[in-house]
Amino acid sequence: MTEINIPVLIVGGGGAGLTASALLSKLGTQSLLVSALPTTSTLPKAHVLNQRAMEILTEVGIAEEIYARGTPAEQMAATGWYAGFGGANPDAGRQIAKMECWGAGGRDPYWAKASACRSTNLPQIRLEPIMKKRAEDLAPGRVRFGHELIDIAQDATGVTATIKDITSGADYTVRAQYVIACDGGRTVGSKFGIALEGARNIARAVSIHMTADFSRWARDEDVLLRWIWHPETAELGVLVPMGPNHWGSKSEEWVYHLNYSFDDPRALDDARVEADMRLVLGIGDHPLKIHRFSRWALEGVVANRFRVGRVFVAGDAAHRHPPTGGLGLNSAIQDAHNLTWKLAAVLNGQATDALLDSYEQERRPTTANNVQRSVENALNQLGFCAQMDITAAAGTAANWKQLQRLLSDRVEDRELRRTALRAIATQSMEFNEHNVEYGYTYASNAVLQDDAAPPAPIEPIRVYTPSTRPGAPLPHANVDDIDGAQHALMNLVRPGHFLLIAGEDGGAWCDAAKGVAKDLKVPLDAIRIGHIEGDYRDPRCAWIRQREISAKGAILVRPDRVIAWRSMDAVANPTADLAAALSKVLGHA
Question: 192: which DSSP letter?
Fold first, then answer.
């Protein structure tokens, strides 16, 4: 049995594992990824990619392809609620309400101001092959699908894993200094006493992935998700276009999510599920080809620990979300981004083990909040029908009559319609949760808080307010270099490098950074940004409006583009202050 020695072993080849592999390669840290599955996901699964995730995938080098293959911006600008879909009723398929979602396809100026990247939509079945190819290109021979983890143990100096090559049947040993478990919690976490805790069995759903021409019914080209009230069952279902070559009404593939109670045996019968889908959609014997049925339970769980010694959990091994809000895959990608630079810094001798403790300190509260938000989004959606007095007991005819009242402009129906629109408006907590997606902040031993009071949130879920307070994401701004070329600020943070951003009169900080980088042997870039003076110019004062420091102050940005520390103004000894701050972030005493 052969043995492989590698700095980092990654177990699992989904969104978290593939992101971790690519990021470690970009950081110059070798890793080996193994997955028991023969290939990437065969289910569409998650599909919305938010701004923070797209920033990371830009760093990986695949954002351009994802945008090209994903839903065009104008066809994921909204989500809509409908009275039925097809069928004989003349009101079937009529839109009750529509709401902008995920930045309105780039049209929402507040979302555009937050990031150089817009949200997009690409099903996991097509996203993961792109991620896998990139990971393989960056680490030839070290991304191995069809290789199953058989056993794993750790000691004071490393982790030993036994891996089986499923094709050949041969076993081999991997000796790694660290392990990132991205296996959905199936093997590694339980081996080390990590448990997923939280709400389970919130609801049961069956997803049907199919090829069909729904263009005669799905007529709103800007709508990504169609929430459909079904008078026959009083359930709220959702229909999602899956591309791959066309989107909107002309999408070739679709996924429909159908809800069942937990004791309903119909959910286990493929033929019955298809019949139920045809009934509630009102499409009769309309031709379609079903690719897969997938059955799953809505749950919202978080691991009780994200680290045990040299083993870290990420992605579904650390948290599982209902799909409402699209936070699961995005959280997984962000887990990998948070952890990989820290592992590289420790393996390179730049940081101590204490830096690795900040992974759990930062990601566990953040993902716990994401899970809670996902659960609340799901419960809010499930409660719509009850608020509208649309019930299974009432029957199809009565439910249609109630839905028609929601579509009516009669005076006697006006109050019910207002009630419905108000209930639907609350779901902006799912489709416009900008502060949840982008505005989360970290508190850990890798963030040095200052004395400035944290800003009171304008609205904690929907409104992201840029800030340079330590723990916050680096605000977005476009700046010009001295030759006039424009750069998004995020692109000035190089992989594995800290970035010191000083004001236009902060030359002393930049001089200090050169000495600190040399003394601590840490990659540290330093720049000045001002409207007129500096290494980069801020022509619209976009950075100046957000930086919250004086022209003589400085901000230290971590490699994951999180603010680590700041000095609001000049200090007597910038070298000493910067060295102390960077040392603390890296876990030195």
Answer: T
Strand partners, 232: none
What contacts 24+ positions apart, CB below 8 Å, involve 574-577?
574/508, 574/509, 574/511, 574/512, 575/512, 575/515, 575/516
SS (H, E, C) 1-41: CCEEEEEEEEECCCHHHHHHHHHHHHCCCCEEEEECCCCCC
pLDDT (0 to 100) of residue 582: 98
Q: Is the dihedral of CA 70, 139, 155, 310 positive or negative?
A: negative
| Separation CA 123–CA 23 (nearest Å) | 21
* 569 within 8 A of 551, measured Cβ to Cβ: no
- pTM tops 0.85, yes or no: yes
Q: What CA–CA distance (Å, rounded) separates 461 from 436?
A: 6
Q: Residues 77, 100: contact at Cβ < 8 Å?
A: yes
Task: Tokens for 123, please give them.
Answer: 């099903």
Note whether 150 and 163 are within 8 A (CB): yes
Residue with tokens 């004062």: 541
Stretch (H or E) spanning 289: strand 288-303
Q: Which long-range contacts (CB under 8 A, 24 or more apart) does 392-399 make?
A: 392/233, 392/234, 394/234, 396/231, 396/232, 397/231, 399/229, 399/231, 399/232, 399/234
CA distances from 64 to 12, 38, 67, 109, 429 (A): 25, 27, 5, 22, 29
Q: What is the 3-state secondary structure (H, E, C) of 533-580?
A: CCCEECCCCCCHHHHCCCCCCEEEECCCCEEEEEECCCCCCHHHHHHH
> Residue 193 has what pLDDT?
96
| Radius of gyration for the alpha carbons in the chain, expressed in angstroms and rounded | 25
Contact residues for 572 (Cβ-Cβ < 8 A; gap 6+): none
Residue 545's contacts (CB-CB under 8 Å, 6 or more residues apart) are none
The span from the CA of 358 to the CA of 25, in Å, is 22
Bridge partners of residue 229, in order along the sequence:
83, 236
10-residue stretch averages of pLDDT, the chain, 589 residues long? 93 98 98 97 94 98 98 98 95 96 96 98 98 98 98 97 97 98 95 94 90 96 95 91 97 94 88 95 97 93 98 98 94 98 98 98 98 93 78 92 94 94 94 96 96 86 97 98 97 98 98 98 98 97 97 98 98 98 95
Instruction: Output DSSP code: residue 321.
Output: -
pLDDT of residue 207: 96
Encoded amino acid at 512, one letter: A
Q: What is the DSSP string of 381-404?
A: HHTHHHHTT--TTT-HHHHHHHHH
pLDDT at 1: 65
Cis peptide bond N-terminal to 244, omega within 30? yes
